[in-house]
Structure to design on (162 residues):
């Protein structure tokens, strides 16, 4: 369990306190030392973020080989699935990418190829390529500790890109 606090125990100081698994790390940021209140706050936030990455860097262990199942694409975190819209009685081919945000919440991003009966093979290849690029960018953010900066909007118009 993690607890992170940035508070001001005195009128001239910010204090960062992080408690994880019973271990506490803390540091004080005096306004005078950092050149003012805003700079001290920025330094405190930066230190907190650096400590968070250091304390959690060994927790984000990724699976390096794909699961052996009928949905496997051979790429970790990407599955080829059929999604059914029961209202329209249609089924769609989708490449789904699994990813986890900075808070630990799991998400999926789908790259829909099209109707399972009429989809284009080139569009399937393009969707799989976009799914792999999405997963590669996400894994880079995990490796560098910048998951919070991972931008889904880069993949919003994946059909129009080359």
């Amino acid at each position: 369990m993690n607890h992170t606090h940035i508070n001001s125990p005195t009128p001239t100081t910010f204090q960062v306190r992080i408690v994880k698994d019973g271990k506490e790390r803390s540091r004080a940021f005096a306004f005078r030392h950092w050149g003012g209140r805003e700079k001290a706050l920025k330094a405190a936030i930066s230190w907190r973020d650096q400590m968070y990455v250091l304390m959690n860097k060994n927790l984000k262990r990724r699976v390096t080989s794909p699961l052996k199942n009928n949905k496997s694409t051979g790429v970790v975190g990407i599955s080829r699935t059929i999604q059914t819209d029961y209202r329209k009685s249609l089924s769609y081919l989708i490449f789904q990418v699994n990813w986890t945000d900075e808070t630990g919440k799991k998400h999926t991003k789908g790259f829909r190829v099209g109707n399972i009966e009429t989809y284009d093979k080139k569009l399937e290849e393009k969707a799989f390529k976009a799914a792999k690029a999405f997963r590669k960018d996400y894994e880079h953010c995990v490796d560098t500790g910048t998951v919070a900066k991972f931008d889904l909007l880069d993949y919003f118009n994946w059909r129009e890109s080359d």
Notes: The longest helix spans residues 121-144.
